[in-house]
Amino acid sequence: MDGTTIFSVICVLLCAGYLVVRYRRYNIHRALNLPTNPPRYPDSAIKSAKEIGKFLFTRAEICGVNFMTADKDTGVSYEAIRDISRGKDTHIVNFLRMAHFLGCEVVIRQIGTTDTEDPAITPQVYEEMIANIEEENRR
Where are its TM segments located (predicted)? Predict the structure, then answer.
């Protein structure tokens, strides 16, 4: 075999591989019912994060929760609570952008007046879990 034949075979195999990958991606999108051209939300993630923060801040006022002391009750730092209440928590904004990109909606609403978390997860246990996650992220 000469060089031209080998080059032609390699090109044909690469093209076939490319087509297989594109076809599989199409099938995965179709199976998951993902939008082929997902809508763009340039500012809606930031706007949604602010609305979530306002809603949670209003709920805190109704429940009589003071953000200055909420870190003792929830295990979430005051700075994080402040960022969430202002809609400036980058993790929430990134989460909302990812959900919007995938064609999903995030809904925050009251479901009851009792705590729905596991009673075994005390603020101290939650604080330890967050510390472990942050330590893992730093590595």
Answer: 6-23
Q: What's the whole-number mean pLDDT along residues 112-139? A: 73
Q: How many CB atoms lie within 10 A of CB 47?
A: 14
- Please give the structure tokens belonging to residue 97: 């952008």
Is the separation of the CB atoms in 70 and 81 below 8 Å? yes
Q: Which residues contact 102 (CB under 8 A, 6 or more apart)?
A: 34, 38
Confidence of residue 103 (pLDDT cuts 50, 70, 90): confident
Lookup: tokens for 78: 């005051």
Within 10 angstroms of residue 51's Cβ, the number of other Cβ atoms is: 13
Whether the pLDDT of residue 107 is over 70: the answer is yes
